[in-house]
Every structure is written in structure tokens, then in C-alpha cells.
Amino acid sequence: MEKIKCFGIIGGDKRQLYCACGLAADGFDVILCGFDRSEDPPELPSRDPESTISESDALILPVPVSRDGKTVFSPLSYENIDLRYCLELCGKDKPVFFGVYGKAEPSVFEGHRAYCYGSRNDFAAANAVPTAEGAIMTAVSESTRCITLSPCLVTGYGRIGRVLAFMLRGMGADVTVSARKSEDLELIRAAGMKAVHTANITGRYDFIFNTVPAMVLDRDTLSRCAAGLVIDLASPPGGVDDKAAEELSVRVIHALSLPGKTAPESAGDIIKKTVYNIIREEDI
Amino acid sequence: MEKIKCFGIIGGDKRQLYCACGLAADGFDVILCGFDRSEDPPELPSRDPESTISESDALILPVPVSRDGKTVFSPLSYENIDLRYCLELCGKDKPVFFGVYGKAEPSVFEGHRAYCYGSRNDFAAANAVPTAEGAIMTAVSESTRCITLSPCLVTGYGRIGRVLAFMLRGMGADVTVSARKSEDLELIRAAGMKAVHTANITGRYDFIFNTVPAMVLDRDTLSRCAAGLVIDLASPPGGVDDKAAEELSVRVIHALSLPGKTAPESAGDIIKKTVYNIIREEDI
Amino acid sequence: MEKIKCFGIIGGDKRQLYCACGLAADGFDVILCGFDRSEDPPELPSRDPESTISESDALILPVPVSRDGKTVFSPLSYENIDLRYCLELCGKDKPVFFGVYGKAEPSVFEGHRAYCYGSRNDFAAANAVPTAEGAIMTAVSESTRCITLSPCLVTGYGRIGRVLAFMLRGMGADVTVSARKSEDLELIRAAGMKAVHTANITGRYDFIFNTVPAMVLDRDTLSRCAAGLVIDLASPPGGVDDKAAEELSVRVIHALSLPGKTAPESAGDIIKKTVYNIIREEDI
Amino acid sequence: MEKIKCFGIIGGDKRQLYCACGLAADGFDVILCGFDRSEDPPELPSRDPESTISESDALILPVPVSRDGKTVFSPLSYENIDLRYCLELCGKDKPVFFGVYGKAEPSVFEGHRAYCYGSRNDFAAANAVPTAEGAIMTAVSESTRCITLSPCLVTGYGRIGRVLAFMLRGMGADVTVSARKSEDLELIRAAGMKAVHTANITGRYDFIFNTVPAMVLDRDTLSRCAAGLVIDLASPPGGVDDKAAEELSVRVIHALSLPGKTAPESAGDIIKKTVYNIIREEDI
Fold first, then answer.
1. Would an 8 Å CB–CB cutoff place B149 in contact with chain A?
2. Which domains are delineated in chain B?
3. How far is C-alpha B63 from the geometric centre of its chain's CA atoms?
4. Which ipTM was obtained for this model?
5. Given B189, C122, D145, D226, which is the most exposed site by the fewest CB atoms within 10 A?
């Protein structure tokens, strides 16, 4: 990590600003680009793309890299920053760390020393925490009931499902988790929770948290459940049959991008740590 | 409990409406009075005070009973309902259940068969849950950081402190609890948390939750801590030196009446259950 | 605490030896008396009662002080150490810390500067941990079943009940706690466990842990339960109708003095810490 | 599952007897073979291998199938039961469920309808519970200290590591888990525990639980730790350098086959459930 002394941070939301602050606190030089609209910018130098890239040893691009396929995703800037141009300025050797592609063409990174931090398992694992906390906050604020003692269903026992179920149980909820694999069903029970096969979901749940990116809560399943509030954490199109839910008078909230919304500081810290992990593993 | 067939519910906020629905769901007749402004009133009969009281076998008054010392606290009504008049209508024998006095004179209940549900230990214990959940929701929504893994301080190990510390620990926070009694300090440790004597609070805490109705977080203590966000759950004047906090750039949120705000349905259920407990204990 | 430089430890079991080692590790001089049968004695000076007392600034007597009313309880010694003689040697001014009386007459301490550490709340709170761990160990080793996922009943929500229920829940058991006070019943629920009034205990429990020093598990209650293994943590006569249990084929284990048996080192540490607390509070 | 009406259980320890009882309780006919030495045999018919197999629709062999490569592992029998002969009696069509091979040649099952329940993930996941409970029981009974509040290290975050770390944390221990993958390190932190890379294990731990079947606690690592008690859960040769441990005065306990030892009833239940899972998945 001794080779990189200065990071350029181009584009992104508050998470990137917190990431920048974290890097600076760790002793790195940091140059910002694309945060001219930020209300409360950190005291770090801001430059145009050319200077940012020429003066820094590595570049960090946001999550996602682009929402239009052309410019860097920069909600905190009045400027349009061309993604391809930035990469050209980086050349073949300057490391570029980027979040998920979004609408950016993967091919745009070809020939560059580009590392995707947004698709890594450690990134996803760490972001399960702000996601789960955001889901719980949403449940408490949108419902008239307490979570503690309430029957809660978490669909899926992947990273988010596991962390969320663990927290709900830790708060005293009566937690059931659905999964398909018999191994997962045993692991759910081993953690002191109730397990149900996804195909057999039934019963009354004051809260249902969907973590599965597939149509798990279809009309059939919703009809078999007496569901209070459904919080869908899966990316669009989500895992809930919204039309059936409406007909069954089940309220559904699609809670997306929770880490950036509820905990941008922690989310920025996770970007920083993941970049460090890449640097260590790849010996950059 | 067989003697009471019909409850009259006069005044109060959403909690009383949920309490009313709960009583109806349990098979009681319920008459409402003082909810004419309610946006989404339950399908239960509404009457004036005279009919409400004459047709019911027992009366439930709100938390608090009165905010002006004269009328029943009725935020969901355009009418003024005179407290003393209601009690006169009840006479000597009709049981009246009421929450805390607020500005009402305790003497106004003299000569009546009045039972305070709001000052009971079981009521306070049950309300610790929505209070703790509301405190956690506030912490997540008002902070840019996650609770999990963060150093959190809970001051006080009474009912709310205990439930809140337990939940935070269950969510994976790094929990320290302050108390004064050596027994409490041992019980805190026995629950797998760090204990500190109130006089010796020090260190960095991303979140401080005050549950003690006394000036615990005074200038001295705040100076010794690197506090992120302080959430004060104690009734006014609270337990934080707000002026010192401001000077030290520590953000303080006074989070009051959380059960009614974040979980009126659960809070209404608690009122109902406490009334049942009184009826059982007093053989009403 | 600066006035005491040397502690004399007279009598007791392994706990007192660990307490002595802890005091020595904290920088105190320590003199032992009554450990001549100890198999693996610590490297600390041993003296007769006269020298031990004359050379030390304070005396620590064991838990209990005496089992015969005359001599100091000294299971690790071949000698008989007269309790009254020891106290005479201490005179009026030398502080004497002692555990519970056992068969010793309280009057024997009159006129002496004696402090009972064994009856203090902080001592009891801290000992709840080794007691609960010992109870769990007993349950695992004496049963053919796992605790996790099993229905477990803890009777009583005092110090031991609370710590034990908390641990069982933390291990993933399906925990019900019985209590009498409606406040306790609410606090049990607030901690995410099932609550049942002591008078209404019923159902199937693979494990029942009694923490109440009263006949809670009488014939009636046992008949209403399908109990697997009962572990009685209450001092004799205990809280289980042993005859009824035998007739109902319910196995009962009376697990007593668990801290000294399963964790003498931690138990000795608790004695040391409690003595420190007394010294601080009494400004000795 | 309707096709199987009668199970033959040949060989094995108490787990197989509890499995047999569970099958009988679920309504199956069960025939036992190889339990003539059992002290407290269940009230189920016992036959010789020939009758057992001819009268049953499916056969359950033990964990492991054989310890000598020739006979069925039958510690509760005076007889030698030839494995190859049993399989011949089963023929090509009768389902045979067996645990791990042990010394049995895999080829011996060729041409038979054999299903290994012992190598399945759901079997391993479910057995993590009795393994973890047995490890905790061993820790409590072999140590003079409490687990609660003690620094504990769990090496590895696979099934057993996860369940064990979860339980220790639930009991109030100060838990650190070591792993190699950065994803696992994040998941450990997300569960509110400390994470350390396996290569960097250091510090004082009152208890170290090894779950990794590789030399994790080598001389280097042990020298960097101040370890109290090491409990090695990995199969021989285990994960601890025993010689180095002895030289460093670190006590090591190799705790093997814990499910069968500490919870044969639960372990037998797990065998039953896993057989059911196979039957369902394979549509037997």
C-alpha cells in the first residue's frame, strides 16, 4: 500500500465523501472531483478531472459508476464528467477502483487497471449491516407495532438474511426464516430460529422482510400468510407480487439502497476498507 | 372480569383507539368519546360524555389524564371534555382507569373508584419495549453511522436501560452501561456487557442513550467523552447539559413519548393489558 | 485501600486460594492459613493462625465461616482452627471479611470490625454467572438432548433466573420464564422470552431449572408439566417435591454450590472484588 | 415416503437406538439388529441380519459404517455382522442409508441403492449444535474459570465455528473468530464479534476452540497467544501442535465425536431427519 500516496475520488454520493474523509484520516492525500453541489463538503482539495487524475496515484469511482452509460454518476455535482475520458486520463497503469457498473459498459474498462469493489463478497457482507439496520428502522417507523415479540419472517438466508435475522432475534422478535436448502434450514434452527421451506411459507407475520431477488412472495404465498407489513429489500423487480399484495390489502415497502441512505458514513468506510482489501490482495 | 361488559374510552391519542380496538376484539362492548377529529376512526360507536359513561360499566381515561388541569387530554377531538364532570357522572362505584395525572389534581379522583394504570410497574416494564425500539430507530435515522459494532453507552440500568442495552447488544453493538450500584455493575457484566460507574464515564461513544432522569451527562462527563450522538430519553428537564453539549459540539436529541409515536398499536395494547391486570388483582 | 498492605486468608476451599492469588497479583502481601492439605498450593507464605493474624492488616474468612459453629470451615486443612480464637486475635480494630455465617453464631462477630461479603447483592449478582454456567453444564452433561431449540423453563426471575434465562436464550433455546409479579412477566417478554405466571406453569419442557427457594415445582405443577430433566438450583430443602417427581418419573438433580465447583477461580475473583467493594464503600 | 413402512437398523451406538425410537414414534415399523449388549434397549423387535433385512423396506447403517473394513460398527453387540453380507441381502433395490465410510471401502456399496447421510451438508449443519454444546460443556467443566466475560477465540467460521461463536456470544463471552476470507471476516463483524485473520492470531484467550481441520494453532501462533485452555474439535490429526502446546504449558483437550457423547438422543434425531430429507429429495 506504500505505493499509493494520493487517491482521486471522482463522483458519487455522500458515501464517497465519507470514504474520502476516512482515507484522509488514515494519512492519504485525497483530491475530490464532482462534489460542487455538496452542502457540507469536507475540507479536502477539489480539482477538475484532469488535475484530480494527474495528481493522484489511484482513482476511486462511485457505486454505480454510471447511471446513463456515459457520465460518471455524480448526484452532488452540476458538471457532467465523462467516464471514458476519465479512464483515458488514467491510462493503462493507474489503478481505478469502481463500484458496480450500473449502465456503464463493462468494455469501457478494458485495457485499464480496473478493480470492481462493488461486486466483491466482502463488500456485500459488510453492507449487510447497514442494510439490516435500515430495514429494521423502516419496520419500526412505518409500522404501528413493535418488532420485539412480534412474529417476523425473513425470506432467504444469504448474507443480508442472516445478519437481519440475527439482529431481529437479538431484539427479541419471534423470527422465522425461509430457505430452500436443507442445510440452510438446519443452520437457521441451529441459530435458535424457526425454519420454513420457501415453498411452505404460511402463518401470521407482523413483518415480512424479503431478501431474495426472485418472486418469493407471489400471490399464492401472500394468500397463505396473514402479513402485516412487507419490506422488500430485493432490487427491482423485487420479490413481491405488488398487485396481489394490493388486492390482499398487504402493505409493501420497497426499501432500496439502504446503506447509502441510512448510514452513508459506515457505507463510505466499507468502500474504503474494500479498496484496502483489494490493494492488499492484488499487491497494488 | 365478568362484571364489566362495556368500556367507555374518553379522550387520548391513537393509543386509546388501538386500546379500544383491542378491547372490542376481546369481546367487550366499547363506546368512544372524544375522537371526532380522528382521520381513520375504528368502527365503534361514538357518543357524548353523558351517554358514554351511562352506557358503560367502566371508564378508561388517557395518558396523561389532562394537560391543562381542567379538560380531559383529547388531541383527536374538537370538543372540550370536562374532567370533573366526567368523574361526577361516574359516581362512586363505576371504575375509572386513568394514565398519569399530568396537570390534573390528584384530589379530583378522591371519592371515586379510580385506578391509575400509568404509574404501575407492569405498565412501565411493557412500555420499555416501544421506548427502546423508538430510541434505536432514532439513532439509526439521525446518525450517519451503523449501531452494530459501534461503541454505545446506555446510562442507567433500570427497566428502559436494561431492555435497550439488551437490544443493542443483540444487534451486535459494543455496549457499555453505566450505573451506580455495585450490584447493577455486576448484573451488567453478567449479561456480557461492559459496566462503568456513572461517576467514571469516559471514552469514545458513537451513541449515548440517557435513561436516567437526573443530570448524568453534565459538562464534566461530556468533556471526558468523545460523544457522537446523544439521545436523551429522560423526561424534561432531561439528563443532559444541553448548553455544555452545544459548546462541545455534541448533538443531542430529546426523544420523548416514544411508545405513542413509534408504536401506538403496541402502546394501546399495553394499556389494555394493564387494565386487565388491575381488574384481576383488584377483583373488579 | 492504602491502609491494607497484607491480607490473611484463613480457611475455605479452592475459591479462597484463587482469591489469595488474585490479591497477590494485585500487589498485596498474602498469608495463608489452613491449606496444608491442598494438593497444588500457590507459592504464598503459610503460617499458623497467630502469625497469620498478627502479620496481616485484614482477615478474610471463608464461605461459609463455619459448618460446625466452632471451627473455621477448612476442608483443605488437617487442623482445627477455632473461630472465636481467631476473632480474639483480630481484636476490635482489624477488619475481618467473612462469607455467609453457616452454623456460626452471628453474635460471635459482635465487638469486631466484621464485614459479611457473602450476603451482599453484588456478590450474589456476580455469582449468578458461574451458577448459570454450572447449571447449563449440568443440563448438557446429564441429558441426552441438546439445549438449543429445546423448550426450557426457568422458574423465577431474580438474579440467577435472569442470567440463566439470558444465557439459554443466547444459546438458542426456546425459553419460558415463570414469575409472580406482573412487572416481571412484562420484563421477561421484553427480553424476547415467553412468560408464565408461576401458578399456571404447564406444558412440555425438556429442561426445567428451578431458581426459587420455595416449593414451586410441587406435585400439582409437576403433574401439569411433561418435564424431561429438572435441575434444582435452590438451597435445601429446594423447590421440587422429590417424592412426587419420583412417582411421576421425572428426574431431578440438585445442583448446589455451583460457583465453587465449576469455576473456583472466577468464584475466588468474585470474593476478591467484593472485598474491594466493601473497602471502597466503607473507606477501610 | 409412503413406500417405506419398515426400517431395519443394523449396528451403531446409542444414536441409532434413539433414531430407531424416533422412527417408531413417527409411525414406522422398526427392526433392530446388533444391540444385544445394550443396557437399556428400547421395546422394539430384534432380529438377526437375515430377518432384519428381509422384513424391512430400507436399511440404516451406522456412523461410521465400519471401523475394521469388514464388519458393521456394532459397539453394542457381541456379534460380528458382516457388512458385505448385509449389502448382498439388500440386493440392488432395497435402499441403504449409511453414515460415513470409516474403514469401509466405498466400492462395497457399488451396485447397491446406497445413500450416505453422514456426508451431507444438512447432517453436518444440524450436528453443529450438539458439537457446540459439547464444546461449551467441556470448556466449563475442564476450566476453573467462567466463559461469560472471558476472551474466547474460535478458529474458523464454517458451520461449527459459526454455531459455536454464536452460542458463546449469546452467553456473554468476549468472542473473537479467526478466518482467512475477507468475506468471512466481515460476516463475523456483522454478527457483533471481533474478527482476526488466521495469520495474525495473537493476544490472551482464556479459551480457544479450534474448528479447523488443519494446523492452525502451530508453534508460532501458540507462542503469540496467551492461551488458557485449548479445545480442539477437529478430527485427528487435529489443528494443534500438541508438542509445542506442552512446551508452552498450554493445556489441550481433543474433544471428538461430541454429538454421540453429549446428546445421543438429538444426534439420533438428526440421523432420522437426514434420512427423511434424502427420501424426500430422491423420491424414495
1. yes
2. 6-119 (3.40.50.720), 127-260 (3.40.50.720)
3. 9
4. 0.92
5. D226
